[in-house]
Structures are given as C-alpha cells and as structure tokens.
Amino acid sequence: MNNTEHQTGKASTLQVAKAVFWSFLGIRKKDDLDRDAKMIKPHQVVIGGIIGGVIFVLSILTLVKVVTS
Amino acid sequence: MTQSVTNINVTMLKKLLIFSAIMFGFGYALVPMYEKFCEVTGINNLLQPNAVDKNIKVDMSRTIAIELDANVRGMPWQFKPLQSSVKIHPGESIEVMYEIRNMSDQEFTGQAIPSYSPRFLEKYLKKFECFCFTKQVLKPGEVRQMPVKFVIDPEIPVDVNTVTISYTFFALQPGK
Amino acid sequence: MAVVQDVHGHHDHHPSGIMRWVMTTNHKDIGTLYLWFSFAMFLVGGFLAMGIRAELFMPGIQILEPELFNSFTTLHGLIMVFGAIMPAFVGLANWQVPMMIGAPDMAFARMNNWSFWLLPVAGMLLISSFFVPGGAAAGGWTFYPPLSAQGGLGVDMMIFAIHILGASSIMGAINIITTILNMRAPGMTLMKMPMFVWTWLITAYLLVLVMPVLAGTVTMLLTDRHFGTSFFNAAGGGDPVLFQHIFWFFGHPEVYIMILPAFGIVSEIVPTFSRKPLFGYASMVYATASIAILSCIVWAHHMFTAGMPTVGQLFFMYATMLIAVPTGVKVFNWTATMWRGSLTFETPMLFAIGFIFLFVIGGFSGVICAIVPIDIQVQDTYYVIAHFHYVLVSGALFAIFGGVYYWLPKWCGRMYDVKLANMHFWLSMIFFNVAFFVQHFLGLAGMPRRIPDYSLQFADFNMISSIGAFGFGLSQILFLYIVIKCIRSGEKAADKPWEGANTLEWTLPSPAPYHSFETPPVIK
Ligand code: HEM
Ligand SMILES: [Cu+2]
Questions:
Q1: Cα distance from C492 to chain A (closest Cα, Å)?
Q2: How far is C-alpha B113 from the geometric centre of its chain's CA atoms?
Q3: Is B6 on the interface with A (CB under 8 A)?
Q4: What is the mean pLDDT of residues A47-58?
Q5: Angle (nearest 5°) at CA C22 between C24 and C37
Q6: Does B170 touch chain C (CB under 8 A)?
Q7: Among A33, C15, C469, C484, which one is most buried in terms of CB atoms within 10 A?
Q8: B109: enclosing H helix or E strand
Q9: Across the beta sheet with B94-102, what order do the strands follow?
Q10: B48 at C interface, C-beta within 8 A
C-alpha cells in the first residue's frame, strides 16, 4: 500500500533536463525512461518541469518578437 | 464497510485540499495580475494619460472631423459636450470641454469610460488630460466643466476623415 | 439495475434496495451510479440538442422562441460537458482504477459517495432552471459577461450548479490521485501502470489545478451580480475581457480533462485487439504529461477576436500549434501498435478506430482554428462547432462507448449482443458524420453559431445536419437497449473475454466480485 520505487541514486541536473525536454516532445526511449523513473525524484520533475515551461514560454516569446520586429 | 483510511492517505488529502485552496486564490490573483500586465504593456490604458512626443509634426494637408458624444448610465446626471464636433489637423493639440450636472439631491460618484469609433482610433489618440482619468464626485445640484486635451497621431490611416469620441458615465456605487 | 452481483458471505452487511445505492461506499457501486447518472444527463442534453437541430431544420423560427433557443444551446453545452462526459469518465475511473492497480477500493470511500451524490443535485438545479421566471441561463456554456451579469434566477442556479459540480470534481480528483499514488499493489510501479490509470492520474492533477479557478470565476460572477463587486463590470471599472481570460485559463485545460482519459481508454483497447503491447508506452506517458502542461498556456486561442496585441496572438498561435506535436505522437503510437498486429474488430475496437480516425479530423480543424488569420474568419461560426464536436463526440464520447463495451462483460458478467453493438457503432459513425461534417462547410460559408434562424443559403446543409443529428440521437436509444439487454439476459461472459487483454482486472472472475483484491495481487 505504499510506493517505494525510488531506490538508490540521485539524478544529475542534466538528466532531469533531458527528461523534461523529451517529455515536452512526448517521446522517450524505454530504457531511458526506466532510468528516469528510478533516479529522478518527483520534486525534481516538478521543478524541472516549471523551469522547462518558463524556457518554453520565453523561447516562443523571443520567436514572436523576432517575427514581429 | 468502514474502510480504514491510512494516515498516508489523509496526509495526501490535506496536501491536495491545500493545493486546491491555493488555486482558488490564484483565480483571484489573476485579477490584479491582469491589471498589472495591461498597465505594464500599455494594452488597456484607456484611463491613463499618454506620453506625448513633443516634436510631433502637424499635418496641415489633412483635416479630421471629431464628433463628440456623451452618455450617462444609471445616474441622475446630465452630461454633454459643449461643442458637438470639432475639426483638427493631425498632430495639432486641442482641448474640448464637457459639462456634467448632478440633477438630484444626492451626492454621486461617477467614472467616465471612453469608447472610440473606429475602434483603432485608440492607437492614434494621445490624451494628456482627461476627466476620465479620475473619479468625479458631484454634490447635489453641482455643475462642473471638464476638459479633454489630446492630439491625433499623424500616422492615422489616410482614409479616416471622421472619428467619434464617446464617453459614458457610470455610477460607481450602484444603488446609492 | 444490479450491475454488480453481490457476493455474500463477506463481513459486510450493506443495506439493500434503494438505500444500498444511497449509502454505498463501494467503488463499483459508485462507478455504476456515475455511469447511469451520466447516461441520464446524456439523454437530457441529447433532448436539448434535438430541439436545437429541429429549430435549425429549416430557416425561420418554428418551434423555439429565440430566448428559449439560447437557453437550449447553453444548457446543452453545460449538461453535456459537466453532466455527461466528465461523470462518465469518473465512473469509469471508479470501476477500473482500483481493479487495474490491484487496490481493494478507492482511498476515501465515504468522500467518494459524497462526490457522487452532489451530482444529481447540480443536475436538478440545471434542469429546473428552465422552469423559473426568466428561464434558464441563455448566455452560452461559456457564460461570458455582460450577458451572464444580467439574466435572472436561472443564471444564479447555473452558478450554484457549477459550484457544486466543481466541488464534486475536485473531491473525485483527490480521491483518484490518492488511490493511484498510495494504493497500488506491491510491484505495480508507476511505469507498470496501465495507460488508462496514467492518463487519469494526469487528468486528476489537471482537475485540482483548474477546477478551483473555475470556482473562483463563478464566485466573482456571483459577487458581481449580487454583492456590488465589479470584477467584470465595466461600469465599476471591471473588465469583461478579464472574464474570458480566467474562464479559458480553466477552459482549455478542461477540454484536455475531457480527452486524456479517452486517450487512456483507446490505449487499452487498441493493444488488446491488436494482440501487441502498446507501442511506445513511455512516450505515451510523456506525451500525456506534455499535453497537460502545455494546455495551461494556450488558453487565449479562444479569444483571438476579443482584442489582443499581435504579439499575444502570435504567442498563443504558436503555442497552440506546438501542442499538436505530442497529440500527433499519440496518434502515431496507436497506429504503430496496430501495424502488423493480428487485428480483430470487436465493438470496442471499432469505436477505438473510429475515435482515432475522427479525432484526427478534429485535431486538424483545431490547428486550422489556431491560425489567427483563419480564426478571425471562423471564430463563432459553425466551423468551431464542427471542430469541437469532432473531438468531443467522436473523441471523448466514442472512447466512452468503446470503454463501456470493453468492460461491460467484466462488470456484469454477461456479454452484450454483438450484432446490435456493431450496429450501434456503424449508425453512430455514419450519422455523426452526416450531422457534423457539413457544419465545416456551414462555418466556412459564414453561418454564425448560437442563432435560431439563418439566411437561406445555409438551408440545405442545415437540413442534412439535422437529419444526421436525429439519426445519431435515435442510435443512442439503441445503446440503452443493448446495455439493458446485456445486464438482463446477455450470454455468460468468460473471465477474460478478450484474449489479448492482460491488465489486472481480467484476472478477476466475471462479474467482478463486490470486493476485489482485498489481499493485493502479486505482480510479476
Ligand atoms: C490538436 C489539438 C487542438 C487544437 C490545436 C485546438 C484548437 C482550438 C482552437 C484554436 C479553438 C478556438 C476556435 C474559436 O473559438 O475560434 C478551439 C475551440 C474548442 N476546442 Fe479545440 N483544439 C484542439 C483539441 C481539442 C480537444 C481535444 C478538445 C476537447 C476534447 C477541444 C475542444 C474544444 C472546444 C469545446 C472548443 C470551443 C469552445 C467554445 O468556444 O465553445 N479541442 N480549439
Ligand atoms: Cu482551447
């Protein structure tokens, strides 16, 4: 009745960043996913996701600025 | 029948309830955020003075007729422009006068909201003084004359010859 | 009525008759209640739709006065969204989530009972608002002010109903999240969860994220109407456009709340009848999460004509078009799952394939609506109506039908009449397209939505559309008949009627016993 799948290990920032990037595209290899699921903690995903979201918004904004200038 | 609810579930329930409450508050927080956003980006600044470029050029070759209009909603006020229309050259600054009169024996507070026709006039109309920038309080029977000072940007499309500026006064405390 | 066969001899002594249903805290009973409620609302909403299409059958005003017509469209939308589609998904979650993760019940059984019983109250409020002075709300299901700031008692009843529905959804979502996170059988890691469970987990998070915002919006509307605030009231310094922003901040995630569980159902059905595991399971999880996050930053694509600077229009246009990428990944994965599979076309599979096919059409018309210069033409026309009925009816609703046919044997231990069920699919498929495909043309030709009368050049397509709609409506009576027949006298179903299925619920006997997985199953 509980979840104990986060086992050993801590994910590097790069790994979180990669996981977030692929999740925005919506594609992920099974092996990578298994590693992500083991190593990355939920709060890392949330923080990574928020940062990823902000970067995403900013990059669209930049694109729009370039297009309209 | 009674499902024993484990502690870990109750903790989760509390967290999610708090989160929902925060999101409820967030809905309300969107209101000042929206206002701030519009103010910063200058999107919806009907009620703020415009910064005006001092060396704007007057385009003597064009004349634009401005029709002035005034309405009141929900208050015993009389509201009218002292001149129903004016003609100006784009780039020339001008002052027009409006008059409000409180016809009742009660004090009222009103706010004027401008509206323009054609709609894009908003972009070319630069107001540096307007009674709509503040609330107006009128004592029983009081009369007030109020100016609007503005220029029309010479960039305004050439096919525009006539525009309308309309103000509507709304009661700020309905029912009072 | 008893879809759930009672397995007696247990430690429980639940009341029988009507009280069993009123008091029940069993996830299967509550799932059943949700599904029947949702079907009842589907019929009410369908009745309103028939009224709308009857009025639009010919130009001119024949049966509905314009004001009543507006109430019909408004309540049709509200009842279908909040009364039919959403409760149906919650019902499916109640039945399936515990069984699919090997849990004995939902995490909060008592709260589960409350969240259901709030629904009929809200449903009655909405329906009875037709009979109060001034009639039901008539400002559209999106209830924009200033129309919703005016209006009479009917609008207040609608606001109250939305409060109740929101509370019910939030409680349901909290229950589902807690169940999925805390109650999984040992060994059922997150990445082994069936897709249906995954999509519901993400949907539930979206629900707790945006339902409270909707509650806030309607509260502001309520205080604007009665307590002198002016959030949206221009006269008091408020701004009606602000309402649109807050509403769609809720509204766009809401449309994904209505489609993600459908993705989940289709992701269960397609592998089963292709006899292959789901292609790209991991990608599917990621794509679902991605859609959920992105859906929170595209809301203003509903407001391209409400007045917005070019920068804003372009931002929301690009963001919206990018959201089609993870959606495309999903469609690709379903197709790849079927590729070289040994396919069979049982009713659930027919609905799933129908879903994929028609949802793609709806997705494409969505992308077209997202292109600002085009949307300025088609906003508030029948083109938008066509778009969202392709994603909601042939999307969400078809997936629900597919899910019901898929799990019905498990629920009641009996098989539905295959011939009739296939007929239900084909009738729905054909009539749906007759009703809605032509609406694309109507929209492009400029027919506005929410009008009781129209100019003559729209007459032919409207008549076709109405005929399709009547056919579609009648076909759903067949569905009711099929389900009742199945419960009453269907053939006995095997524990695992679909050979390709391999999620946990199929390890249980059919019908699923009243209490299942009281001792957690062992997962390979
Ligand atoms: C590929 C993904 C999608 C895109 C790009 C998209 C885009 C859009 C756009 C731009 C509009 C606004 C049209 C207008 O008002 O002029 C719209 C309306 C709408 N969409 Fe979508 N959409 C997509 C998927 C969906 C899905 C999956 C659903 C629901 C299950 C949905 C439901 C709706 C609804 C209900 C409306 C109309 C709201 C109203 O004004 O009443 N859409 N969509
Ligand atoms: Cu949307």
A1: 34
A2: 4
A3: yes
A4: 82
A5: 100
A6: yes
A7: C469
A8: strand B108-117
A9: B77-81, B94-102, B143-152, B125-129
A10: no
Query: Tokens in use for B106?
Result: 């009660």
pLDDT (tens digit per residue) in C97-134: 999 999 999 999 899 999 999 999 999 999 999 999 98
Predicted-assembly ipTM surpassing the 0.90 threshold: no
Which residues from chain A sit within 8 angstroms of residue C325, using beta carbons? 25-26
The number of beta carbons lying within 10 Å of the beta carbon of residue C339 is 11
Q: Do C191 and A34 touch (CB under 8 A)?
A: yes
Mutation test residue for ligand 1: of C302, C317, C360, the one with most atoms within 8 Å of CB: C302
Measured CA to CA, the distance from residue C173 to residue C105 in angstroms comes to: 15
Ordered by start, the domain boundaries in chain B are: 1-44, 64-171
Ligand nearest to the CA of C448: 1
Question: With a cut of 50, which residues of chain C have pLDDT below it?
Answer: 1-11
3-class SS shares of chain C: helix, strand, coil, % to 5: 70, 0, 30
CB C78 within 8 A of CB C158: yes
Domain of residue A20 covers 3-68
Q: What are the pLDDT digits (tens) for C402-445? A: 999 999 999 999 999 999 999 999 999 999 999 999 999 999 99
* C141 part of the active site: yes
Tokens of C398: 């078809």
What's the CATH superfamily of B64-171?
A: Ctag/Cox11 (2.60.370.10)
> CB–CB of C217/C123 below 8 Å?
no
Q: Which residue of A has its CA nearest to B6?
A: A1
**Cβ distance of C286 and A68 shorter than 8 Å:** no
| Phi (first) and psi of residue B51, to 5 degrees | -80, 130
Tally of domains within chain A: 1
Task: Give the nearest partner residue to B17 out of C107, C174, C249, using CB atoms.
Answer: C174
Q: What is the spatial distance between Cα B22 and Cα B24, in angstroms, rounded to a whole number?
A: 5
Q: Is C491 an annotated catalytic residue?
A: no
Which residues in chain A have their CB less than 8 angstroms from residue C314's CB?
Answer: 64, 67-68
Contact A3 C297 (CB under 8 A): no
Q: How many whole angstroms separate alpha carbon B111 and alpha carbon B172? A: 6
B72 forms beta bridges with B169
Give the span between the Cα atoms of B90 and B112, in whole angstroms. 25
Identify which ligand lies nearest to the alpha carbon of C449: 1
Active site residue C268: no
